[in-house]
Request: fold
Amino acid sequence: MHGSFTLINLLAGMVALSVACATEPPGGHPAADPIKTPPIVVEGAASTTTPGAPETVGTPDPEVARGGRAAMERLVALTEQASPRASASEQEQVAAEYIQAELEALGYETRIEPFKVRAVATGGLFLRTKGTTIGEIEVFPILLTAEGSATGSVADVSAGLKEDVAGQELKGKIALIKRGGITFQEKVDNVAQAGAVAAVVYNNEPGPFRGTLRYESAIPAVSVSMEEGIALRNLEYAENVEVALNVKYSAGSENLVAVKPGGDKGERIVVLGAHYDTVPNVPGANDNGSGIATLLEVASVIANKEYAFTVEIVMFGAEEIGLFGSRYYVKELDDNKRTNTIAMLNFDALGSGKNPGIYGDPELLDVLGQYASTSGIEVEKKNSMAPGTSSDHAPFSEAGIPVVFFLADDFSRIHSPEDTLEFVRPELLGSAVAMTVALLDQLDARAWD
Ligand SMILES: [Zn+2]
Reply:
């Protein structure tokens, strides 16, 4: 049992996890696998606004001004009644109930889509010999890990590169992988393809870390500290020693869905989505109270309109910890519904800055641009998103659905206690409401095949 004493001794002195976030090490690989998903930071979009000093650009379109006032009232109420709204928390649940009541007051029927978000390792990683547990170490599930339990002997695969894995017999084994060089996703995919039943990634600097995958892995994937990783590596040569782990999803969140049935093309769907969670302990007025308030106001404006297509209004939970709500929604789409979803419009952190911004499908952006120019809305078309940043449109886009992301250009206060109402500009909300309604009207006027 070479190595196991070292390991068990290490347990006593194990440091508490203080690392909030870990990506691949600096220097090597481009910013892969950030633990959190800052919703939107747009490349080169430095704020040009003075905090608290609203810009006035000519006379606002009356519809923009009206929508802005109405959305701002909704935002004030949401912020007072349901913030903060930390992902997958009781606060988030309170917010969902508040928003559900708002949608029902507008005459919508709503449904709740619950899903699981947070993986926990039940009891850590157990070391066993001949069925007897001889030690246990703390592990941290990597975000988006598969659920499941695995038992096997340890196989050291170095950094888990394709060439590290090539020729290794990993069937039924637990792959031990050193952090660094390539993304966690690539490491875990490589060993899973080679037959490993679980992946344990150990740190390449002292202490533990947390990582995230890009999409759900095929096998359970966890991280351990460098010290424990080295100790585990020695177990590769220990006879009759196995390790066992069990990862399951515990904490829950939910999407809130309101459906506005369509007319003669009711099988076609336009999804309007915004996330209602915040990072912990922030008011979240811009991120993403602004998106929720805007979407509620859109829901109000279109409540009595008739469209040929169905509109699904989706308030996503648990965006901030990895787009869980939107990923779940897209995962649950069957082929028929996915191919019939003609557009997804996402509203996230659109309330601070100088001008409204849009990003996404060029054809839809053109429609919006034309409307904006006739309405005096100075909208900025964004060509790219900053690397490592994302929001709820991303899973839809990956599924081949045309998307539009409504945003703005000042993200300097999101995820901070300064993300307060005073930095949200009603005109930006009003512009997004007006552009959205115009786009829905345009889509409705199209000839349908
Ligand atoms: Zn956001």
